[in-house]
Every structure is written in C-alpha cells, then in structure tokens.
Backbone:
C-alpha cells in the first residue's frame, strides 16, 4: 500500500535558521511526490514536485527537497526561515489522486 | 487566470439535512478531485473525475456521499442526511488530466461545513 509519513507534527525554528521538515513514503511504483503548503485560512499551494527527473528539486520561496530512494525519503529544507513561512506543510504522494501526510505545522519565532 | 472556485465558502446545516457543495474547476482541466480535511482524519481523498470516464468513488466514506460532474466542468458534491462527523473543510482540485500522476493539482479555497 502507498503511504506518506511526516515524522513531526510540529516544528519550531527561529527566524533566519534552517528549516527541515521530514517525510518518508512507501510506494510500489516510481513515485511522484509533492510538497504543498497551507497558510491559515488559505488554500493549498504547491511548493515543489518530484517526478523522476533531478533528485534535488527546487521550489518556490527558497524551499527545496531531495528525493532519496534508498531512504524512501523526501525531506523539505530551507536555509533560512522567514516569518512568512509559518504554515502547515503537507508531503504528498500521487497515484492519480493524492495521498497526504498528516501535515507538519511550522512555527517561526522572531 | 481564474483558479478553482468553490461555493459556498461556509455552510452550517442541521443534522439530517442534505447539502450540496459546488466546484468550478480551471477551464480546460479535465480531471477534478474532491478531498475532505478534518481535524481527526487529516486530508482524505473522496472522489475524482477524469473526462467522460466513470468516476473513481473509492474514497467516499458512505453511501450518503455522492458527486456528479456536468458537462465535464462544474461538479457538485452532495451529502445526504448529514451527520456531525461530516463537519470538515471540503476541498476541490483540478488538473490538466489524470495521468501521468505528476500533473499538479490546483486547489480551491474549500467549503467549511458545520453540522449542528
């Protein structure tokens, strides 16, 4: 069965420090993986996607993720957090319809 | 251009009543999806439509839930005899087509349903 596990329900960082949001997946096929972000009272927005091309994927707002098949991981990173990054982040596996992780709430302290 | 729109944005209904939620996908997108976001269950797939093919209803939680898509565009999600556990945000998304699975899905703002 295909599944996505986000290892942290809540991550708190200080502004200007690195961000790491962890995601592991399980898939019988070569996966398509996404990260979506949801700001409070806003819709889901695509940050980046992996579709079997480059394993290091760059997205919007300075985020990037690395696909590691050996570790079945697709962790999201950003070198320097900004206050506006505070939101909920979802790691997503696509099999036509999307399979969502439980989400990681990112808090950014000034 | 216009994104995915959903209406109403908020709906409060009494237990046992029927509700209809509407989704207008991005023009030209042949695939349309419904998801539900609730505190206890996170984000769950409900149903998708691809062109004129039969919809994949595998995510619908009970036979009280149904959806249709008229003319390959607008979709309506209907919940009959609503229960309190149906309270959630219902999200609609569309994409150019269903396959390959790498096509990005664009999400609407959602309809917040509260069953009292």
Residues:
């Amino acid at each position: 069965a295909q599944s996505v596990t986000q290892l942290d329900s809540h991550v708190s960082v200080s502004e200007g420090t690195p961000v790491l949001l962890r995601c592991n997946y399980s898939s019988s096929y070569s996966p398509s993986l996404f990260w979506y972000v949801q700001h409070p009272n806003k819709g889901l927005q695509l940050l980046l996607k992996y579709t079997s091309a480059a394993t290091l994927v760059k997205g919007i707002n300075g985020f990037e993720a690395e696909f590691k098949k050996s570790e079945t991981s697709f962790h999201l990173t950003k070198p320097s957090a900004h206050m506006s990054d505070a939101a909920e982040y979802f790691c997503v596996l696509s099999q036509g319809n999307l399979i969502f992780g439980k989400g990681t709430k990112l808090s950014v302290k000034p | 251009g216009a994104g995915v729109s959903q209406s109403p944005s908020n709906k409060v209904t009494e237990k046992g009543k029927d509700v209809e939620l509407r989704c207008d996908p991005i023009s030209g997108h042949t695939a349309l999806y419904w998801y539900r976001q609730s505190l206890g269950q996170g984000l769950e797939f409900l149903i998708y439509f691809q062109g004129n093919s039969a919809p994949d209803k595998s995510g619908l939680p009970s036979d009280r839930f149904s959806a249709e898509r008229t003319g390959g565009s607008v979709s309506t999600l209907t919940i009959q005899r609503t229960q309190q556990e149906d309270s959630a945000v219902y999200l609609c998304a569309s994409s150019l087509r269903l396959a390959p699975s790498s096509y990005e899905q664009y999400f609407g703002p959602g309809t917040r349903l509260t069953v009292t």
Remarks:
- The longest strand of chain B covers residues 42-50.
- The interface with chain A takes residues 33, 35, 42-45, 48, 56, 59, 91, 93, 98-102, 104-110 of chain B (CB under 8 Å).
- Strands of chain B lie at 5-7, 10-13, 19-24, 31-38, 42-50, 65-69, 75-79, 88-95, 106-107, 111-115.
- Chain B has a mean pLDDT of 91.
